[in-house]
Amino acid sequence: MTEMSDFLIDEESKVPDPLEMPEITPGATEGLKPFQAKPQHQDALGFPGELIDNWQETAIDKMGELLGKYRSLQVYLDSCVKCGACTDKCQYFLGTGDPKNMPVARQDLLRSVYRRYFTFAGKYFPKLVGARDLTEDVLDEWYSYFHQCSQCRRCSVYCPYGIDTAEVSMAAREIMDTVGKGQKYCNEIIGKVYTIGNNLGLPKKAIESTLEGLEEELEEETGLKISMPVDKPGVEVLLITPSADLFAEPHIQGLMGYAKVFHEAGISWTLSSYASEAANFGMFIGSYENMREVSLRIRKAAQDLGVKRIIFGECGHAWRIAYSFLNTLAGPFDFLDPRYPVPQHICEFTYGLMNEGKLRFDKSKNDAYRLTYHDSCNVARASRMGDMPGGQFEIPRAILRATCNHFFDMAADTIKEATFCCGGGGGLLTDDLMEIRIKGAQPRMRALQQVQEEHGVTHMAAICAICKAQFSKVMPHYGFDMDSILSVHQMVANAIVMTGSIQEKELQEEQQKEKSDAGASEGQAA
Ligand code: SF4
Ligand code: SF4
Which of 41, 123, 170, 366 could cross-link to 404 by cystine, CB 3.0-4.6 Å? Predict the structure, then answer.
């Protein structure tokens, strides 16, 4: 049997500190940039197909429009005092050493142009205030470095003025889209949501056939008929989940976990083929219009199906948008049952049932895992959960502790509000950005290596589809198997003891046997 002492180390850790300052390497990642969107990807979202002739004038006009629309943007551009507190807080700087990946330097790429065209000093004494003309070289630099920011907001936590580089990065991307320099990955995906309903382009037939296969698997495993419906009208809950949950591991095990929880709670639910995507890449490109368009699909699906509640599955930025903006973008949701929050997170739902004593778990079913938890940046820093401060940190951990015997947190300065991005968020989860994804994952991977060394941790759970997809790709670069990343509801699926299931029967038999063994040894002792 493995003892805790097997994992304790008596010498200094060999794993480098996740927060270690890198060697400063100017220009290290200036050549890294994503593929540009093709004309058809741009057209579908109402953006010009390629760089327009009067792009410079249009870009400056757009910047003026954004400064008027989002007062916070102007405040962020005006208020930086160059204190340096944010310089070493970005995972892309820590992983690459490129000084332009320091949050303050990233902001300055836009700030310098803002100063040139929108401030008195910049118009008349540009050199004195570091103001720059918007040239094609500057636009190229924007394209590169604003796609090396995952909009994770880690830097804003440490800025004494709360300057949010994520918003600066969103504004830069919106300006680039407006002049015809969009990113292929994000824009193609948004187009797929409009035409097919989800990022992966899964048609209804494919969704139905996946769900049928999963129902069969669940029946074989549990002996129960657990329904996984799509487009079923009149049910209580519309589940909006990332399309990755219908397609890839470990996401799909999470979906099976949600289905088990709904079944055990006796709550009817359905997916929608029209709104078969929780992810909303409109946020990544900074486009309110596209973010709204995608959100309105959820409202329409809920109304068409006549549900009472909307619950979101495990997706980080989807929850950021749902929690923070869904009512503004697509509300009011006065047609839903007012007894429930709009929207609700699947973790809040499961946690609520746990607290009501409606779920039973056999933790030993997860004994193969020594587990840690990755706080996804969008959940940690851009939203909340439950009705308590810090609920977004405590609720997923409470679920993991209830379903698993061996849980260990990573270093305090790398989790919760201080968590690192997985390296693939914010529209970076594309193979053309693999190098920056691997380097950006470095701080999180080092923190994971530390708990592996100290506690023998074997797996990490997360509640974000992007995190799961990113980690399964980059973990092998840091010495972990690609299946070392798990869904939180995968742990639920493994441990839940469902009424009338094969697992319940087995557990009862085990308990019965333990009782008679104990009785027999008491008898012998007497
Ligand atoms: S990736 Fe995160 S920490 Fe880095 S600049 Fe962007 S928002 Fe800040
Ligand atoms: S921490 Fe804030 S004020 Fe200080 S350099 Fe960074 S963005 Fe500027």
Answer: 366
The pLDDT tens digits of the residues spanning 454-496 come to 999 999 999 999 999 999 999 999 999 999 999 999 999 999 9
Stretch (H or E) spanning 465: helix 465-474
DSSP letters for 355-386:
HTT---B-GGGGTT--EEEPPPHHHHHH---T
Give the count of beta carbons closer than 10 Å to the beta carbon of residue 517: 10
CA angle 50/55/58 to nearest 5° reads 120
Which of 32, 87, 110, 150 is the best mutation target for the ligand 1 pocket, counting ligand atoms within 8 Å of the beta carbon and taking the most? Answer: 150
pLDDT in tens, 53-88: 999 999 999 999 999 999 999 999 999 999 999 999
The finding on whether 162 has its CB within 6 A of some atom of ligand 2 is no
Instruction: List residues bridging with 345 in a β-sheet.
Output: 312
Nearest alpha-carbon partner for 184 in 171, 173, 168, 195:
173
b vs e for 273-310, b when ≥16 Cβ sit within 10 Å of the residue's Cβ? bbbbbbbbbbbbbbbbebbebbbebbbebbeebebbbb
d(CA 262, CA 10): 46
Within 10 angstroms of residue 486's Cβ, the number of other Cβ atoms is 25
Going by CA atoms, what residue is nearest to atom 3 of ligand 1?
90
Q: What 8-state DSSP symbol labels residue 272?
A: -
Tens digits of residue pLDDT in 323-380: 999 999 999 999 999 999 999 999 999 999 999 999 999 999 999 999 999 999 999 9
pLDDT tens digits along 175-231: 999 999 999 999 999 999 999 999 888 999 999 999 999 999 999 999 999 999 999
* Domains of the chain from N-terminus onward: 39-182 (1.10.1060), 190-495 (no CATH)
CB 420 within 8 A of CB 414: yes
Nearest one of 386, 228, 354, 239 to 308, comparing CA atoms = 239
Q: Whose CA is nearest to atom 1 of ligand 1?
A: 149
How many Cα neighbours within 13 Å face the side chain of 422? 33
Q: Which of 460-464, 499-503, 516-520 shows the lowest per-residue confidence on average (mean pLDDT)? A: 516-520
**Distance (Å, whole) CA 472 – CA 259:** 23
For ligand 1, atom 8: residue with the closest CA: 155
